[in-house]
Amino acid sequence: MRRVSLLSTLAAALCLSGLSAQAAGGRYVHPADRAEERIIPMYGNLPACEDPAVLGEITSRFNSREAKFWGPLQAVTFDRVQPIAWRPWGDDFIPRRFCTARVLTNDGVLRRVDYSVRENLGLFGYTWNVNWCVSGLDRHRSYAPDCKMARP
Length: 152
Hints:
By secondary structure, the chain is an alpha+beta fold. The protein is built from three helices and four strands. It has helices at 2-17, 21-24, 52-70; strands spanning 75-86, 96-105, 110-118, 129-134. A four-stranded antiparallel sheet has the order 1-2-3-4, covered by helices on one side. A hairpin with a 4-residue loop joins strand 2 and strand 3. The protein starts with a helix and ends in an 18-residue tail after the last strand.
């Protein structure tokens, strides 16, 4: 009996606040709350997953990190580049494009790389940037387990 009254109280509170049950679940975004309507709007103009600038950014950052901290491992080439999700959390969040690919390293091993291209998170918020994780090489466990936290 208490559970029913709690649910009805919650539904009544949502109705009074002007939100629908669908909005409470995160599926519906009021047009005024979209990222495009903010003071500094975000339009989702992001490069594609296979864009050379995106893959070049991953390659240069991976190669410099490996050379500086871990050893001679270098990224050579990418293949099977494919998108996973586009704005998976809704239109009111920062626009992100999630992608996955395989990277061939100079030791001859193909590894999965998961990455996201994110708007307005680059230098001073003026441009896009890339957040990435190479499976098996997440030595600090930043995206553990096995780069799962780099995916949507």
